[in-house]
Structure to design on (612 residues):
């Protein structure tokens, strides 16, 4: 089976995974906005720890209306843009299209399913350090695995082919039997560090070296574990220690939300905070410290928006 | 009965109340540090909405070792300086001296009682807008009542005389039958606004106008009420609405902790946060959002201290 791919949101994540697939010989169609003219002439450049490459020529588009229907649509937009999906996706969908949301947070697949009840929706978690260096230029510094599972409906044959394509393109690919568990596990890290680096205007290493904020991180991780459990995702307590140890060993790091904050962009508060808080509350657990961080982030976002 | 007063911490609060007593003809001895030379020559100037005055000559000292023993010692230091009291108080105490702590927070009288188990200790709450304008110059803009009650031992005759002296000096004086309740009631306002204006680097009016932070204030007030109740201080729920309404009507305001933060001074985290959190936990209630604010303030204080 030969899969035809589309990438919506050709940034550091979408550009990397889509670029890898294209470089390995797959048919990939990319949506661009401001970068369109540049990549049409110069291609998409990816500097990567597992090998540099340029995708040139590239199937680049300004609008999904000009793109062909595809078998797999990789959505790597920031989740703050997901309200655009209703219109953007339509031209790309045939009856068996799989839409893969490579996005942080919780509840995004369910939101999309409300708009497209019959769509096969998968969720993806990218464990990667990758950033946009400039126009048409992505730098991949570390890691890279992609974890993917189905949320609404399932098409195992497409998933297996995707795994084969990705692995042939040097992307480690993990099939998640339990996407809900995978998403909650990622939230154990994302919830404390994304928001606290913004609220305290600092970086992960300073948080870890200061006893009171280190304890606060631990408290919040414990809340996330308790919330995950009532939502059917049982995570061992030792996972918290693993996350703390991993963060101790990381180089000083600004999570994506801190980069958004520093660059005056919208923060992914809904996906990473509001949705998990609401979903856990509905299931019977109230993450109080996490909710306080959400309240502070909403305050900060409102001040940024003026 | 003629009371001899001492004032330790002759700032905006101690200078105002002590100055009022001296201006009304009472014997008051003031401790100064950097302002000593100036006030010796120029006196202590108080501009007040209920009448300006200058205390000149003034009984000013550089050290409590030079001061006489007094009947009432008014301590209006910032609570971050209370570790100095052990040495400072000794020269001032006779057998029946009453030490009055006019300070924010909780647990300070109990701390002092550990050092001086036989001392008569009272607590005072100042409802006043007063600030230091410059060397030897205090400005009293609004309010003024002083609420006083006993924490350890009691000397009603001294308290009644103090009330008489204060009222003759234009200071409304309220005897608190339940100092614990009075302190918890003041914390209902102090806990959310002092810390949040620092953590969010804003003022009370912006907090009140932003839905997420207004809700956070309400959440924290509810935690304080629950904590107060397990500590034997029952406060009606309507008190929260009163506090919110009062703050809505206030001019934009920076609480004392925000002023300390803006001026790079130590914040009263222990008295206003750590002590109430610990005391409530021991009594069986965990203020989670309040504790998160404490953790953030400790982080901010540590970064300020470098």
């Amino acid at each position: 089976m030969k899969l035809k791919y589309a990438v919506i949101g050709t940034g550091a994540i979408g550009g990397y995974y889509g670029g890898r697939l294209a470089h390995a010989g797959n048919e990939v169609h990319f949506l661009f906005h401001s970068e369109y003219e540049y990549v049409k002439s110069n291609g998409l450049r990816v500097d990567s720890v597992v090998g540099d490459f340029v995708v040139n020529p590239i199937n680049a588009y300004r609008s999904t209306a000009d793109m062909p229907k595809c078998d797999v649509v990789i959505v790597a937009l920031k989740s703050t843009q997901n309200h655009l999906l209703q219109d953007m996706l339509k031209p790309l969908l045939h009856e068996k299209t799989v839409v893969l949301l490579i996005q942080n947070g919780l509840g995004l697949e369910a939101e999309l399913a409300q708009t497209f009840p019959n769509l096969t929706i998968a969720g993806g978690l990218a464990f990667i350090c990758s950033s946009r260096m400039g126009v048409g230029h992505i730098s991949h510094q570390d890691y890279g695995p992609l974890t993917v599972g189905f949320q609404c409906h399932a098409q195992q044959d497409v998933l297996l082919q995707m795994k084969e394509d990705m692995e042939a393109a040097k992307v480690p690919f993990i099939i998640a039997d339990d996407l809900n568990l995978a998403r909650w596990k990622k939230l154990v890290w994302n919830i404390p560090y994304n928001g606290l680096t913004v609220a305290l205007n600092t970086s992960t290493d300073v948080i870890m070296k200061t006893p009171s904020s280190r304890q606060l991180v631990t408290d919040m991780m414990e809340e996330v574990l308790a919330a995950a459990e009532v939502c059917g995702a049982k995570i061992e307590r030792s996972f918290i220690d693993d996350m703390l140890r991993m963060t101790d060993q990381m180089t000083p790091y600004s999570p994506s939300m801190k980069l958004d904050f520093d660059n005056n962009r919208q923060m992914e508060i809904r996906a990473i905070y509001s949705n998990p808080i609401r979903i856990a509350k509905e299931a019977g657990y109230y993450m109080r410290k996490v909710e306080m961080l959400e309240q502070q982030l909403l305050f900060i976002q409102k001040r940024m928006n003026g």
Chain B has a mean pLDDT of 96. The radius of gyration of chain B is 19 Å. The interface with chain A takes residues 199-200, 202, 206-207, 210-213, 215-216, 219, 288-289, 291-296, 298-300, 302-303 of chain B (CB under 8 Å).
